[in-house]
Amino acid sequence: MKQSSPNKIWLAVAAVALAQSAVLGWMIWNRTTLLQTGREIVAEVIPVDPRDFFRGDYVILGYTFSNVPDVGLPAGTKTGDVVYTTLKKGDGSKWDVAAVTRDYPATVGPDQIVLKARAEYVYVGPQPNQLTGRLAYGIESYFVPEGTGLKIEQQVRDHKIDAVLAVSQTGEVAIKGLIVDGKRVHDEPLL
């Protein structure tokens, strides 16, 4: 049986390390680019329970546009499918669901924004043959400075918090910061 030379093994290890570093670098660059260049919107936050003490200080955030009972989901949508939610600007920091589609819409109005989502739950809605459900956008939890999580969760329950979101041209979304009682706090660091 022929054995590999030590040089070939080190070359393979170096290639794997380089590939992993490239993937990690791309992930950091992608997130930083989204936070710097994404369209900024402010979205109303609704309270969600429970709290998990094992993940550190973070806040669970809910959004009115996570549930789509009236608009419905595209026919054939299954749990785990990617969909695109078109939101239209409502009063204050409220965004309402205008449509949910399988593909990114061809046109978007000036008072609208599109978020990429994953169908978390799918079920038959109030109308016959209409699918409805809950959507997840990847912005449902936000890590906060140590010791502030419980206070912020209470403010969420009291409806005193809005989320500042950065949205890319492809619908990717990230939490950029929080607004507490009208004052912007807890901005996400770029690096």
Strand content: 35-45%
Helix content percent band: 10-25%
Strand tally: 11
Distance between the termini: 49 Å
Radius of gyration: 20 Å
Mean pLDDT: 83
* N-to-C series of helices and strands: HEEEEEEEEHEEE
Tally of helical segments? 2
In order across it, which strands form the biggest sheet? 1-9-10-11
Shape: globular
List the helices and strands and how they pair.
Layout: H1 6-37, E1 39-44, E2 46-47, E3 58-62, E4 82-89, E5 95-101, E6 112-124, E7 131-136, E8 141-143, H2 149-157, E9 161-167, E10 173-180, E11 183-185
Antiparallel strand pairs: 1-9, 2-3, 3-8, 4-5, 4-6, 6-7, 9-10, 10-11
Q: Could you please describe the fold and organization of this structure?
A:
- With 191 residues, the chain is of the alpha+beta class.
- It is 21% helix and 36% strand.
- The strands form three sheets. The chain has a four-stranded antiparallel sheet with strand order 1-9-10-11. A four-stranded antiparallel sheet has the order 5-4-6-7, with no helix packed on it.
- It is globular, with a radius of gyration of 20 Å.
Key traits:
191 residues, 2 helices, four-stranded antiparallel β-sheet, alpha+beta, 11 strands, globular, 21% helix
Question: TL;DR?
Answer:
The protein is an alpha+beta fold. It contains two helices and eleven strands.
